[in-house]
What we know:
The protein is of the alpha/beta class and about 375 residues long. The protein has helices at about 20-30, 75, 110-120, 125-145, 155-160, 170-175, 180-185, 190-200, 215-220, 225, 235-250, 290-300, 310-315, 360-369; strands at about 10-15, 35, 50, 60, 85-90, 95, 105, 230, 250-255, 260-265, 270-275, 280-285, 350.
Amino acid sequence: MNQKSETNYDVAVIGGGHNGLTCACYLAKAGLKTIVLERRHIIGGAVCTQDDLIPGYKIDVGSSAHIMIHLTPVVKDLELEKFGLEYIDCDPFAFAPMPDGKDAIYFWKDVDKTCESIAKVSPVDAENYKKFVTEWEKLNEGVFQAFLKPPTMVNLGRHMVFGTKSKNPADMVRKLMTSYGALVKQTFRHEGLRAAMAWLAAQSGPPPSAMATGDFLGWHSMIHRSGVKRPRGGSGELTQAMARCLEHHGGEVLLNAEVEKIVVENNETKGIILEDGTRIEATRIVSNAHVHTTFLKLIGKENLPEGLAERIENVRIGNGFGMIVRCAVSELPDYTAAPNGGRAADCHHGLQLLCPSLAYLEKSYADYL
Length: 369
């Protein structure tokens, strides 16, 4: 890693995040000479684990729990376990202590077991939750099928609307177009469950009031299929395994390699130029960078078809994202709602949903916005 063997490649991938690495691995496996260019000193983007931040600790820079990848064939296709990846199942995958300190909800991969936990807090919501999972799982089966095919609006729309197997597709579209804050209020009655579900939805970024975020809540249903897993050794072990897979298939990774420009000659991409002036020839470019960075900075407006630059400039950018706080602790949390004496227990296995109410979450966003 971090040494290029030549300057001519079939494909240059800009950005060594997990999406760029996934693409690069498939290309290299298919026989294309591929290089990944990463501006940082470590591969993985938000899926990396650093041991140089606090002595004696490994810190996940971004993600720590892996969910969606287990609904795809990526791990199996790329044989990532052969390259050192080992996943640890988290079950229950989430724990939500109630603010009164008397009760807690455990979210297990098994839906019925989860409903049993919810029933201790709110029997009616145990029924609501079962209906919620059944309904949204059907919809998201269609959504995910669209994700695994070349992206087109027609393809996505067809799978979402007609692949729902719903008796009322129009109602599902309404739920998709609403905010997840409104949807959680419509779906559940108990404030503690509402808060836990909204907090899960909030991991995608937008506030509870944002329109067309209904599936940020609905997507939770798919966790009962995928489960939640953590790589042994930290989140970055996924991208480290991908890098080893890439190199095994003849691909290369170049670190500390910030791309300054995508070379365009006669309306064709010819390669890239790094910040230090190095030119790397490649007949195909895959960008893992933001759409604004890719088209407006790296390619440049002068190389874009008429009207395209304006359309890209008008692409809406979300208003911020969550800040991750990592704490180095000397003992495990001993919850009032789930006393454990500081010893490892079910409440520690998965995501800790520490959100007392939906109003608390909404106010937190309001303070930022």
